[in-house]
Amino acid sequence: MASDSPSADQVHQPGTADGWHGIIPSNAFPAEPNRYHLYIGLFCPFAHRVNFVRHLKGLTHIIHTSVVKPYPKGDAKGWPGWKFPATETEYPGATVDHLFGEDYLHKVYFRADAEYKGRYSVPLLWDTKSNTAVANESIDILRWLPRAFNAHLPPALAAIDLYPAHLRAKIDAISPWLQADLNTGVYKAGFAETQEVYNEKVIPVFGALNKLERLVAAHGGPFVLGKEMTELDVLLYATLIRFDTVYVQHFKCNLGTIRHDYPVLNNWLKGMYWDVPAARASTDFRHIKENYTKSHEMINPRAITPVGPYPDVEEGVERDW
């Protein structure tokens, strides 16, 4: 059932840095297959959340995508921003802009608001009928997308609920510190401009990992809260799949690695990657590694991408939690 349609200023405040906060289904944005188009980058952990759900819920035939290249990003202020390849073969996994044929993502944003002052980020969900943006905040989309198109899905896929009523209290208690200390915590440490700031910001990252190691162990796996996958698993996966690969060396989050210092989380990560098809389908390590190492000149001025670690994800999931 559609929710009440948000007013125009609730979806987006024109001419400002405010993003888009539309919801599907609603009166403004009904749940119609093939009506919406998703702009993503396979490198971005925030866009990864949405693409993960898109695969998990079997929405790949309902919501089609355009994928920006992982680099270049632009100047220190992000201008001109993410770019589409000129052809489908220029950079494997990246695509042309399938809707408008634009060369830069910012031009798509300007189609929704010519005076937009915010970031030209991914994900961006677009409504092809009203020809405007729906939403570009991943945490909001993660909350409503898993249920948005249930009426158009087979029962087995419609039954997947990442925010079940009986686990909401736990999810709501864990999600804030998971996001603040780990999901964005790696960025706070990685983009620190002084030793003092880095020293301060890197500690909460590993504090969160320590808590999660105990939490997953206490619930007995294979997911964060036990037998049922929730949005916490999506939030955690998008960060941990990048941790040993880029965050340890590139963001200097090297007080430990997942594979060597967090056995429970490493087993959880292996289980997600090898046992959940949506995880593998939405993960591209070349995009991930080359984005961070070739678009952050301040951190890696020569844009050299490390070969390791090897393997990207270890095999051999332990079933006896």
UniProtKB/TrEMBL annotation:
<feature type="active site" description="Proton donor/acceptor">
    <location>
        <position position="187"/>
    </location>
</feature>
<feature type="binding site">
    <location>
        <begin position="119"/>
        <end position="122"/>
    </location>
    <ligand>
        <name>glutathione</name>
    </ligand>
</feature>
<feature type="binding site">
    <location>
        <begin position="137"/>
        <end position="138"/>
    </location>
    <ligand>
        <name>glutathione</name>
    </ligand>
</feature>
<dbReference type="Pfam" id="PF13410">
    <property type="entry name" value="GST_C_2"/>
</dbReference>
<dbReference type="InterPro" id="IPR016639">
    <property type="entry name" value="GST_Omega/GSH"/>
</dbReference>
<dbReference type="Pfam" id="PF13409">
    <property type="entry name" value="GST_N_2"/>
</dbReference>
<feature type="active site" description="Nucleophile">
    <location>
        <position position="44"/>
    </location>
</feature>
<dbReference type="InterPro" id="IPR004045">
    <property type="entry name" value="Glutathione_S-Trfase_N"/>
</dbReference>
<dbReference type="InterPro" id="IPR040079">
    <property type="entry name" value="Glutathione_S-Trfase"/>
</dbReference>
<dbReference type="GO" id="GO:0004364">
    <property type="term" value="F:glutathione transferase activity"/>
</dbReference>
<feature type="binding site">
    <location>
        <position position="82"/>
    </location>
    <ligand>
        <name>glutathione</name>
    </ligand>
</feature>
<feature type="site" description="Lowers pKa of active site Cys">
    <location>
        <position position="247"/>
    </location>
</feature>
<dbReference type="GO" id="GO:0005737">
    <property type="term" value="C:cytoplasm"/>
</dbReference>
<protein>
    <recommendedName>
        <fullName>GST N-terminal domain-containing protein</fullName>
    </recommendedName>
</protein>
<feature type="domain" description="GST N-terminal">
    <location>
        <begin position="43"/>
        <end position="147"/>
    </location>
</feature>
<feature type="site" description="Lowers pKa of active site Cys">
    <location>
        <position position="292"/>
    </location>
</feature>
<dbReference type="InterPro" id="IPR047047">
    <property type="entry name" value="GST_Omega-like_C"/>
</dbReference>
<dbReference type="InterPro" id="IPR036282">
    <property type="entry name" value="Glutathione-S-Trfase_C_sf"/>
</dbReference>
<dbReference type="InterPro" id="IPR036249">
    <property type="entry name" value="Thioredoxin-like_sf"/>
</dbReference>
